[in-house]
Amino acid sequence: MSSKLLSPFTIRNLGLSNRIMRSATWDGTADETGAVTDRSVAIYRELGSGGIGLIVTGYAFVSHPLGQANPNQYGIYSDVLIPGWKRLVKAVREGGDSRIAMQIVHAGINSVFLVRKGYTLLAVSKLAEVNRPHREMTDDDIEGIINDFTAAAVRVREAGFDAVQLHGAHGYLMSQFASPLFNRRTDRWGGSPENRRRFHVEVVRRIRKAVGKDYPVLIKFGVQDDREGGMSLAEGLETCRQMVDVGIDGIEVSSGVGTSSAVIKEGGSDRPAFRERAAAVKKTVNIPVAVVHGIRSLKMAEEIIDSGDVDMVSMSRPFIREPHLVSRWQRGDIRPATCISCNKCFPILMRGEPLECGEERRLREEANVDN
Ligand SMILES: Cc1cc2nc3c(=O)[nH]c(=O)nc-3n(C[C@H](O)[C@H](O)[C@H](O)COP(=O)(O)O)c2cc1C
Ligand code: SF4
Predict the structure, then answer these.
(1) Fewer CB within 10 A of the end CB, N or C, for the chain?
(2) 74 is an active site residue
């Protein structure tokens, strides 16, 4: 089958077999230190044989312990973790020609997990309306976290990944810096829009310097907040422009603060809710742009690409249920993804179990009762 969507594409110098991305997906299979386990390797072996152009890992925390968002989340805060990641990359390479990027993150104030463990969270600003124990970061804290992001990106390259992706969406630390709702600082890291994007610009600049000019550095970016008083699209677009100036190579467009649960809940079938804002990013920058959220059919994915709105389409939940969705489409079985966007996969993770499709589990249990 030949279509623009399923034809090769290049990000910087990274050749991809098609324009489909697996968006970052926390799978709850890391051990308590954040290390890759056999279960993680098995998940990525499956994904790697499924024909996906670019697979992005679940988010990996760059600072320990205060960067972690959730239990059994991957980590990339130490060299000790690199051998595990190498195994995972090898499993993907053995499966086919998918390329793989690691997503890296700092949770900031967005970690109920750390609060349950008794930690005081690191916040961009002290917020009276937030009752989780937290304190405002000092200048030294911020410098330390930028160094942690930079060291993590170097480890990603050392572990053999094809690219690194910053998590700049869904209310985690980068979103917190960008958003006036979370960033009420009056120093050079807050106040004006220019100051609220300084963290993004600095992180990208330093990573670019550390990994060299040819290594692909990507970001999943919440280009606007979907909450009253949050960051506007115009501001987000200017941040995109400035990140390109300091070396970002590709932007996957999502949402900022106020939407982390909406991202999970709203994704009905074939309703690409962020398409318009992604098209605005594409008009603003001259690097590849992807859109994520709610895409479920080959027809919709092809239409989005053929329209020129963006360069790549990205999906998460469809690949939980069907890791081989792209190869199925390539074989000519073009029925939409079987994922019904019901989100029954999420409570499984929240209970501390490894990720699986909750709808499949329900159907299995129903069949067992009938037998
Ligand atoms: C179980 C689960 C885990 C997720 N983990 C991450 C993550 O680690 N990093 C991230 O940026 N987004 C994460 N997301 C959000 C997805 O990448 C994606 O943005 C969202 O689900 C919308 O896309 P979809 O409609 O194709 O699922 C996760 C979503 C789900 C359902
Ligand atoms: S439980 Fe299965 S069908 Fe429901 S959203 Fe998750 S992957 Fe899709």
Answers:
(1) C
(2) no
